[in-house]
Amino acid sequence: MDRLSIMLTPVTGAVITGFIVIALFSLGFYNWAAVGTGAVIGAILAWPAAYIVSRKIKGDDPFQTRARTQGMRGLPEV
Length: 78
Hints:
This protein is mainly alpha-helical. It has one domain. It has helices at 3-26, 32-60, 66-70. It is elongated. The model has no long low-confidence stretch (mean pLDDT 85). Keywords: Membrane, Transmembrane, Transmembrane helix.
C-alpha cells in the first residue's frame, strides 16, 4: 500500500463527495438521500482515486527512483 495514497484518500473522498452533492443539488434533489448518496459514492471511490493520483504524482517525479516505486512487493512500474 502506498503511503501517499493513504494521505490523499480523505482529500479525494471529500472532493468526490462534494462534486456529487453539488451536482445533485443543482438537479433539484434537496434531501438527505442526495447527501447520503454522495457520501456513500465518495467513500467507495476515495481510495481508488487517491491511488491513481498517487501513481501519477510519483510517475512525474524526477527524483523518484524505480526501486522505491516498485518496492519489495513487485508493484507494477510507474
